[in-house]
Amino acid sequence: MSKSLNLCLIFLVAIFVIGSVFAGGPFISADDGRQRIAIFTDDGRCIWEYPAAKPYAAWVLPEDRVLLANGHGVELITADKQAVWTYSTKEEVFGVDLLPSGNVIVAECTAGQLVELDKAGKVVHTIKVNSKTAGHMNMRNVRVTPKDTFLVGHMGDKAVREYDRSGNMINEFAVPDMAYMGERLENGNTLVGHKGGVVEFNAKKDIVWQLTSNDLPVVLAVGGGTGAVAINSLIEQSIGELTKFCNIIHVTGKNKKIQYSKSLRVTRYALREFLNAEQMSQAYAAADIAVSRAGMGVLTELSYLGKPAILIPMPDSHQEDNAEIFKEKQAAIVLNQKELTAEKLVENIKKLLNNRELQNKLSSNIKTVIKKGANDRIVEIINNIIKKK
What we know:
Helix content: 10-25%
Number of helices: 8
Mean pLDDT: 87
Low-confidence stretches: 1-20
Shape: elongated
Strand order of the largest sheet: 4-5-6-7-8-9-10
Largest sheet: 7 strands, antiparallel
Oligomer: single chain
């Protein structure tokens, strides 16, 4: 499994048991960007979804039921989208988990407490937790450990703390940024997700592994010298999905800024209307792959640098001929804009990022398409002509 997919699962997905109706789906996503929870197969097909205005955590339970934390409470839903029970509260709720008994533990952020619900959704136990930060920044997710303790992500305190059923703190794992959640691994280590990445601690609280957003791949999206409205629109529609597994540098062209939904918490997206030559060279150097038009200028740059690329040529123009040459030489992935959707673009970007062998092949082949040293060759020809005169 790739690092990018690991990170996506850690922050967005909760899995318990896949029932018979959901047998084709290996994971469920709580997607607040699209305001839904959805179950996906391992090849990315959505096989079930449920509309939810504020979905923050979701679990698939036995008997084909889904547990959802919805911002101000918890819902238990059947496969045919009927409510079994609903727990509502004025407090903010971002996390929920299932206890071995079948009861549910709810993280009430603004109240600074964990609430245990029975199988009918009724409160049976309350646990006060220790946080230096009150209100909205208090806590996010809660996870039950194999020892029936609770790992709570204290967002404002930049720490995950472990509590027993009496509310006694028995462990603390500090991280450099806002802490979202902790997970006890099979080897006894603790995985902590924070705003800037993921950290794995051993029993002595030593860091044994970590992944930051800087470790995620970088995609450079550029539409040529003046930008491309179509590419800008596709990126605009894809931001929520793309930033789950990669960083994006998006050069839109002058006066062609895009407006993505304010509901998206976008942190791995750098928008620039224009980059000068030095800045553009830095962007190319940082990028793992590029998404681009197929004009000769950008194709020359991609060829010279050996940059793996997805080309979206301008329809009904010479760019389609340019792109066809690169496609025939297996030097780039070429997509037809008339048939392209945001979903297909995301799919192609993800496939290329997750296939190192294909990246190396494209990089090697694209270097051979446009011959280097053209300037020197032109000077040589001119000098020969002058000598003959």
